[in-house]
Amino acid sequence: MSKLTFTILFILAIMLGYSTTADLKNPERAHGHPVYTQEHVDYHIGKYQRLIRQQARTNRVLRRQNHGVLATRIKPWVRLAYCESGNRWHISDANNIHFGGLQFKTKTWLGIGGGVFAPRADLATPIQQVAVAQKLKAKYGKSQWECSF
Question: N or C: which end of the chain has fewer CB atoms below 10 A?
Answer without folding.
Answer: N
